[in-house]
Amino acid sequence: MEVELRHLRAFVAVATRRTFTAASRDLLITQPALSRTVQQLEEAVGARLLERGSQGVEPTEAGSELLDRLRGVLRDLDAALAAAGGHAALRIGFHWALPDPWTSDLLSAFETATGARTTLVRRDDIVTALHSGDVDAALVRGDVHASGITGTLLFEEDRLAAVSTGSELAARGELDWSELADHPVVVNTVSGATSPDDWPPGNRPEQVITCGSYDEWLAIIAAGRGIGSTTVSAARAHTHARVTYRPVRGAPRVALRLLWPARGDRDPLLRRLSEFARSVS
User: Fold this and answer.
1) Which domain-ending residue is among 81, 116, 135?
2) Whether residue 208 is found in the same domain as residue 230
3) pLDDT digits (tens, 9 = 90+) for 149-177
4) DSSP 170-210
5) pLDDT tens-digit map of 23-69
6) 76 CB contacts (<8 Å, ≥6 apart)?
């Protein structure tokens, strides 16, 4: 049996999503049809590529190696087809609120100069999205340390403190960064830009409340269970009737970075995007 493009896309979808259910939704085919397609690929290469279990699907050793190779191949193929049809495009990932009008100015200037289309894609796990080819580049706040990912610092944003409207801190015109550590601090460990390490040793928060999304972070602060810190642009974009924001003296600024897979260093569109992002900054 000859291996077709549909076999490769089916395998990558299942191996990336780790379930046939999610992959079938992405590919708009039925689960039985998807399962048959993956089995055909396994028969063609003569090796088991996926281990199917009660908790989902995991690539075998052979499957992991094939997945790593195919991600780059399919990404290059999609880019070549888009360019041939005059529809070059970049998918730009982000965690949550992006600084505006900076982002709008960047994308408008980039699209006008290159003729390429850009699409913003929200993802909580940016590193996985970059590695899988789900996004081509990403705008990320804070530090990201991951193999196979490169990028550039664009600029730094000021912080604000986020407190419940019922807190005594809400009546203050300004707060000090060091005093925030005296209160329970709410930290979004998945996509947030604040961690206990942002305070100096010896003055770090004794109580940290962790959560996994910006919406959870806001809800916990609104309930008066703790306080938090976020950037000025995020505070403007995400409001809550029971959360107020206050300036903070002595707060470390938050870096905004443009990231992309190291394999994309030769991509001319990514290079142009990086150049435009730095110039708009």
Assistant:
1) 81
2) yes
3) 999 999 999 999 999 999 999 999 999 99
4) GG-S-EEHHHHTTS-EEEETTT-S--GGGSPTTSS-S-EEE
5) 888 788 899 999 999 999 999 999 999 998 877 899 999 999 999 88
6) none
